[in-house]
Amino acid sequence: MNIGLATTALKALAHETRLRVYRRLVQAGANGLCVADLAAELGAEANGSFSFHLKELSNAGLIRHRQEGRFIYYIADYPAMNELLGYLTEHCCAGEPCGEQTHTCVTTEIS
User: Fold this and answer.
1) Alpha-carbon torsion angle 12, 18, 24, 27, nearest 10
2) Using CA atoms, how far apart are residues 48 and 54, in angstroms rounded to an integer?
């Protein structure tokens, strides 16, 4: 990851709604959530404003989507998340052991 991609991802997350959406999608796992369920869980309306936030996260490479019939499901892009976390913690603690924990998510998509 380079600084440009990291900046884009962090800018996308620097909004309360988008951060809430992203955290919920990370929790949802590999199957993700359909837009209506995601909006309902967050107490939001599945309208143009909500779609804008999903688009921003998608354009930043943090989430992806799949269509099943009339429904669109959004899924956290775990490799992208892990890459951003790795970029942020690269060379931490001036090379000294700091007891950091590795938080790497590996998911398998269920069909």
Assistant:
1) 10
2) 10
